Amino acid sequence: MADRILIVDDDLEIRTLLTRYLTEQGLTVRAVENGVAMRRLLERESFDVLILDIMLPGEDGLSLCAKLRADGFYLPILMLTAKGQDIDRIIGIEVGADDYLSKPFNPRELYARIKSLMRRQAYAKIPGSPEQAELITIGNFQLDCQQRSLNNADTTVVLTTGEFALLNALVSHPLKALSRERLLELSRSRDSEVSDRSIDVQVRRLRKILEENPADPKFIQTVWGFGYVFVPSGEKR
Predict the structure, then answer these.
(1) Which strands, in side-by-side order, build the sheet including 156-158?
(2) pTM over 0.70
(3) Helical residues (DSSP H) of the chain, grouped into ranges
(4) What SS3 class is residue 45?
């Protein structure tokens, strides 16, 4: 069965162009113009990747992304942003987007990003892969690698594709300092336009979930001038 892509963009020309191009690449594509139509489709159909424009009539893409994550939708989300709007990219990652692409763009690059996101998804489902190891304890949480969620007595957090890939990279190398460059490689994001700043933003999101005091983290500690290290015991290094 072909992989299924949902495009949300109010520009008819872009929807038509991308639908035609991605269909030629063997993907099944649905395209809608706003968040209302998007929610209707998501409630009755399943998709492998969501392409979500930030600038939409009515509710914008950032708000839609945040609500999807809050409602437990963890399919990969790629945000389309205005060229040069770095703040939109950062906010997009903070609300749960996995990748972003600036307009105007080459459809071939969008296709490459889509394939990258789907490879991450597929890797997590390979029997015996690190993502399917036993539950991993992080403080009061347990990381369920099959469900890509964090659980404690009264909280369940569904992680985005990017958050899960980054956290898995860290917990798979306990007590080993990993550079931002290495974390990009381990989370299989090198073929995407993901920057060191994006890694920092995702680390902040994970700390808000895992740490009692995100300003003084115990489990995901900073290695100044280098990167990050996962400390299972929570002891300061």
Answers:
(1) 136-138, 141-144, 149-151, 156-158
(2) no
(3) 12-24, 35-44, 61-70, 86-94, 107-124, 161-171, 180-186, 196-210
(4) coil
